[in-house]
């Protein structure tokens, strides 16, 4: 069981959801908060090992803990049952005859179990097998178990070790019910297997492992023990809470160093490019014209990014029968991942350059109370599902602009956790603030940024929340953290060009809401980071009429 972020408040509307696959259960809130430091280093997940006899109630205890946490960060209940060793046809026949010892430590692939748990603890993607008790086989998809505390290498991975103690008669009764109902076995076979293998394993291996437990929980009527465990885990998760968007801005107030400048590839600042940027920055540009020039700009940036990717030499014969020394134009190792929603405008530009490029997406937006980025949805191309395959891929991360760099750090950390080398990640963006340059380079110096502009200013401004409308940064795309603040009594006047005057007198053009006025007590606000001179909210301007 792991989690690296603070649970949401019990008043939150973000209720957890669960997905089940056998005994393996993933409990997830509606967003994964940062699981890494401002320097991009993963914070290890909190891991609990739960051991006990067969049918002692280990899975029930794990699920009761998840239920007690209420609104929780992402939690995985990982069952030892998924890690039985590969069975030959002879083994399968013995198992069908209740003549195979599933309860001996040698029946578990501890090496694979330990590796999967180690990857999960470090935040890395891994493949967890699923075991079928009907067919006695494993299938690859995607900690609790009787031997959870027996192996020393496993105990070293746990932050908390729990042993579930249960009466032997009750465990046998539960086992008979489970195996007859869920696994279709007959009572005689169950009792024969219990007497020959299960009880011996419990006496020799399982029960002696209880000496390693930090806490022993009853397998029946254990509400008080669960409550104590939940209280302890709440404290652990609170201590691991990571809130650093403002810290990024404060840390990044200095001018970029020469090495940071080199990590940014500014595409040639031609008159054509400056003309396109002028049209896109203009608050009065109509949507159709904005979309056309945004697509043009994304194509220019993609072409510039691909120009420096290494290509293998290739000799060909031309249509005129002449030998030509060229390079291999194969783009099969290139994929794109868009940070939604503002990364969407890059999709058309990328497909103009690489027609059949696989595209994935990450939905990263701001948590309403803290303004910190939340990973809400992840759909990566198939080539990134395998860590081995991901290691050879070139990934283009797509986002329209980078403000604080918070969403960029989250997106890069996701790719690293899936096995993509840092040097194989290129971030494409229309414009980036110098603060984001510093954030990304400090954490991931090998990541390249390709952009059309680097803007100097990043201000935190107050934005009104209009019912039924998205205003500027209020939609809170991940790289522009916006958080709700209390009712505000000041009046905001919107300018004729769609900008508005903040309480400090600064004008912010965003192309929306011209001529509107809020009176005292009629609105709520969000605080949001805004790049200046910037382009406003690119996602809104691209997609909304």
UniProtKB/TrEMBL annotation:
Enzyme class: transferase
Domain Phosphoribulokinase/uridine kinase: 47-219
Keyword Magnesium: no
Domain Phosphoribosyltransferase: 268-468
Domain of life: Eukaryota
The protein's annotated pathway: Pyrimidine metabolism; UMP biosynthesis via salvage pathway; UMP from uridine: step 1/1
Keywords: Kinase, Nucleotide-binding, Transferase
Pfam family, one: UPRTase
Gene Ontology terms, MF aspect: ATP binding; uridine kinase activity
EC code(s) of this entry: 2.7.1.48
Region annotation Disordered: where it falls in the sequence: 1-23
Record CDD domains: PRTases_typeI (cd06223), UMPK (cd02023)
Classification via NCBIfam families: PRK05480.1
Protein known as: uridine/cytidine kinase
Native source species: Cutaneotrichosporon cavernicola
Name of the gene: URK1
């Amino acid at each position: 069981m792991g989690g690296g972020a603070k649970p949401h408040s019990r008043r939150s509307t973000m209720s957890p959801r669960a997905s089940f696959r056998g005994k393996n259960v993933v409990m997830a809130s509606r967003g994964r908060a940062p699981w890494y430091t401002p320097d991009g280093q993963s914070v290890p997940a909190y891991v609990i090992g739960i051991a006990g006899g067969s049918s002692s109630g280990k899975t029930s205890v794990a699920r009761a803990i998840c239920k007690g946490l209420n609104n929780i960060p992402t939690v995985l209940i990982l069952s030892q049952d998924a890690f039985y060793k590969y069975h030959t046809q002879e083994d399968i026949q013995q198992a069908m005859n209740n003549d195979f010892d599933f309860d001996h430590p040698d029946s578990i692939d501890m090496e694979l179990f330990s590796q999967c748990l180690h990857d999960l603890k470090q935040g890395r993607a891994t493949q967890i097998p699923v075991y079928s008790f009907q067919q006695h086989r494993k299938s690859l998809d995607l900690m609790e178990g009787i031997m959870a505390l027996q192996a020393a290498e496993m105990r070293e991975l746990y932050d908390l070790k729990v042993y579930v103690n249960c009466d032997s008669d009750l465990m046998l009764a539960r086992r008979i019910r489970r195996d007859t109902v869920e696994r279709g076995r007959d009572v005689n076979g169950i009792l024969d297997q219990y007497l020959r293998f299960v009880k011996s394993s419990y006496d020799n291996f399982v029960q002696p492992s209880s000496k390693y437990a930090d806490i022993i929980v009853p397998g029946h009527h254990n509400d008080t023990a669960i409550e104590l465990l939940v209280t302890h885990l709440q404290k652990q998760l609170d201590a691991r809470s990571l809130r650093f968007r403002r810290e990024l801005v404060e840390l990044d107030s200095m001018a970029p160093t020469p090495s940071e400048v080199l990590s940014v590839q500014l595409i040639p600042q031609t008159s054509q490019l400056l003309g396109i940027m002028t049209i896109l920055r203009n608050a009065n540009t109509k949507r159709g014209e904005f979309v056309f020039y945004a697509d043009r700009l994304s194509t220019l940036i993609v072409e510039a990014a691909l120009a420096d990717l290494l290509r293998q030499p290739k000799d060909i014969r031309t249509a005129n029968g002449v030998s030509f020394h060229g390079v291999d134009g194969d783009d099969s190792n290139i994929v794109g991942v868009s940070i939604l929603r503002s990364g969407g405008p890059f999709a058309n530009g990328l497909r103009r350059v690489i027609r059949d490029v696989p595209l994935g997406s990450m939905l990263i937006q701001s948590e309403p109370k803290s303004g910190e980025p939340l990973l809400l949805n992840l759909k990566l191309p198939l080539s990134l599902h395998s860590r081995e395959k991901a290691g050879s891929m070139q990934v283009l991360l797509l986002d329209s602009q980078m403000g604080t760099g918070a969403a960029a750090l989250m997106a890069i950390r996701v790719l690293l956790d899936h096995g993509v080398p840092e040097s194989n990640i290129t971030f494409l963006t229309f414009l980036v603030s110098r603060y984001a340059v510093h954030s990304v380079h400090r954490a991931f110096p090998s990541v390249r940024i390709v952009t059309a502009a680097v803007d100097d200013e990043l201000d935190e401004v107050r934005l009104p929340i209009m019912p039924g409308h998205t205003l500027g940064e209020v939609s809170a795309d991940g790289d522009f953290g916006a958080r709700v603040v209390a009712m505000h009594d000041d009046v905001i006047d919107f300018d004729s060009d769609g900008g508005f005057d903040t309480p400090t007198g600064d004008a912010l053009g965003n192309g929306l809401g011209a001529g509107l006025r809020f009176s005292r007590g009629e609105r709520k606000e969000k605080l949001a980071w805004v790049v200046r001179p910037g382009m406003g909210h690119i996602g809104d301007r691209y997609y909304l009429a």
